[in-house]
Amino acid sequence: MKKTFLKNNKNIQFLIIGLGLIGGSIAKRLSKNSFEVLAIEKNKSHLNYAKKSKIIIGSLEKIDTTKKLFVIIALPPKVLLNNFDKYLDLFHKADFVTDCTSVKGSLLNKIKKNKLESKFILSHPIAGSEKSGFLNSNEDLFKDKISIIAKHKGLATSTLLKCKEFWFELGSKTHNLDPKLHDKIFSLTSHLPHVVAFSLISLLSKRKTSEYKKFIGGGLKDFTRIAESDPKMWENIFSLNKYNLLKDISDIEKEIKKIKTFILQGDGSKLEGHLKKIKKTKESLNR
Amino acid sequence: MKKTFLKNNKNIQFLIIGLGLIGGSIAKRLSKNSFEVLAIEKNKSHLNYAKKSKIIIGSLEKIDTTKKLFVIIALPPKVLLNNFDKYLDLFHKADFVTDCTSVKGSLLNKIKKNKLESKFILSHPIAGSEKSGFLNSNEDLFKDKISIIAKHKGLATSTLLKCKEFWFELGSKTHNLDPKLHDKIFSLTSHLPHVVAFSLISLLSKRKTSEYKKFIGGGLKDFTRIAESDPKMWENIFSLNKYNLLKDISDIEKEIKKIKTFILQGDGSKLEGHLKKIKKTKESLNR
Predict the structure, then answer these.
(1) pTM for the structure as a whole
(2) Is A239 near chain B, with CB under 8 Å?
(3) Domains contained in chain B, CATH given
């Protein structure tokens, strides 16, 4: 990709809000690529460590108003919404703002309400992990991953280009998606599986025999990786994508009930037919 | 492990009933280890291929009554039950019989009813795969895996020792489990996750936008591998482990409903607390 906006890295400052897994990984890659990185982070020891190890040059006190300010928000979605107003001045001063959250609807409303449509663009890097926090961050987290850009009305073309260059700088490809469709898709493909994984582990925790834990390899293990994900972030996501997710939960309840009914009725051939159809769908995903 | 019963391999014939993934893999390993292997398989082209490539020496016509006959049943659980009587003579003639199914209760009843308790032992190798069938079988399928031996009352000590040696010959360790507990454990750790995985893919198949399929990496993908498993076998398993599985399905419905209610009520801190507890359980599984 030909760089336009990120060509002269002496001309830009990146301000990362939140140095967790995502924010920390962004800061590490950008500083490695010789950009000036600033950060806001309430965990002082992480902030100091980032300063000492030259991942960042400092915090708000280091803002150089002669340079362009690119603000990257890496907070959990509800934390971002609850603190949006606190950062409003920063957003207005900035040349470019994007986020990294996996729910878009309510954030877009905030952006519109505050007339930030032109320079604030919605991003969602598909680079999460069950490992969370700054200590797990690494400069290659976004390498060869996809970052979704959810374009909205009123966005400046330059903002879109800046966003693409930004993710390209981190090693990612980008993919456009409508914000509403984004929230629907991720409800089903990510948020619902997390609900189910958390539920399966919760159920397992109620079985007292330790023998259960020895035999999770026959299926359960595949599901459980994501049940180790950050509870705060997932509470945020479930709550913010409430309407899509409640619909999907009702739908999965119906699907489970369908199989339950086949089993109850003892109708083996209907059940086998149902599973055959599903296997075909799964195989089509591999193509 | 010191071999007693499998020491002199000229003295024994193995008869494998069913040359699928499991039976084929057993036959390949045993013939490689210079045992005489016979097989019963309704797919004639697989049977002929196995003969031509010297995986087996033939079928029932090759039984040598001067040798000890070890019968290994590698059929799906309901297929085995439905054909049990057909093989009764064989079982009575045999020196040793075991199976490879993942539901034990109803098979044990058949064994008792036919007074085969002494020489027929329940096995369950934890070596399944979403890939099924003879064409996916391989001699190392059981290497470093665990095979469960579900001991019942009336079993001869020699049968238990033969079974341990048999799985050891294939490269597996063995683990004892009570047959009833076996069915309870595998209902939760394997059969229920399959119900959920099939349900998630069934739901996905109803979404018409192709964009959904591009973004299964954020959670759904983990669940989907097992939805490609053999429909016939899983219908068999779901149906035979009906009572344990229906109970577990009801329990997972309650767990999902719990999270649904927290989301509906908008009670973020309760939801976060619930997810935190689950994360702790998950972490304890890693130890």
Answers:
(1) 0.89
(2) yes
(3) 12-178 (3.40.50.720), 182-286 (1.10.3660.10)
